[in-house]
Design brief:
six-stranded mixed beta sheet; four-stranded mixed beta sheet; 31% helix; 10 strands; 233 residues; 7 helices
């Protein structure tokens, strides 16, 4: 991590976790890595993709040019049926700042879009616009947190706009994370992001993420090298 660059750390944990104990173990693990002391904010509620939308709206300064480490851990003493335990850590940074410090991100996550009155089709178009790609270029869709009605609505809208993933044989490009692994609750969006980022890195192809928090949210992940680092999207 470059010296002098702000780093914010957010721990997203289940409501039943002992906050004092969790902070103690986190600080122990952080110190064991030889890292300088860094305060971590404990988030006991949802901190999802739309938080990136607010970040991208910042006009400049330290609130924009920073790194953010998000650690989301979903655990349960008695796991429910079709649930999953998951731990996700993502280091996010303002791309132009990272480039100035000689850092090479493995992927670029673009501005997220919430499904509003325009419906799923308009949200897919807007996510693609921010991600600098057409729907037909998005051959992989990573979804989590959607109920059965929303899944049908998503596939219907995807077919209407010609989403690449909706054209694959047997919907092979549609990756239902909940069906494959179980629901990771509040960690689901970040789990979807991490899987999309890894797929983008391996295939050098753009990915679409669709998850649900308060509303359905979409975002495009692009491999590095496809757009200039000055885009605010």
């Amino acid at each position: 991590m470059p010296r002098g660059v702000p780093l914010e750390v957010y721990l997203q944990l289940p409501d039943h976790v002992d906050v004092t104990l969790a902070r103690h173990f986190w600080e122990q693990a952080w110190a064991a890595l030889g890292l300088p002391p860094r305060g971590a904010s404990l988030v006991m509620s949802r901190l999802g993709m739309m938080s990136l939308d607010s970040w991208l709206d910042v006009p400049g300064g330290a609130d924009l040019e920073k790194f953010v480490l998000v650690v989301a851990v979903a655990l349960s003493e008695t796991p429910a049926e079709n649930s999953a335990e998951a731990g996700v850590a993502l280091l996010l940074g303002w791309a132009p700042m990272a480039a100035r410090h000689g850092l090479t991100p493995i992927a670029r996550m673009h501005r997220p879009v919430a499904v509003r009155s325009g419906g799923v089709t308009e949200a897919i178009k807007h996510a693609g616009m921010f991600g600098r790609c057409g729907p037909d270029q998005l051959h992989h869709l990573w979804q989590s947190g959607l109920n059965s009605v929303e899944k049908v609505s998503l596939l219907t809208g995807a077919a209407q706009v010609g989403l690449g993933a909706a054209q694959t044989d047997g919907f092979a490009g549609v990756h239902d994370i909940d069906a494959a692994l179980g629901s990771a609750d509040f960690a689901s969006p970040w789990l979807a992001v991490s899987l999309a980022v890894e797929q983008a890195r391996q295939t050098t192809a753009p990915q679409l993420i669709v998850c649900r928090e308060d509303v359905m949210e979409l975002a495009v992940v692009q491999p590095m090298g496809r757009q200039p680092d000055t885009e605010r999207s």
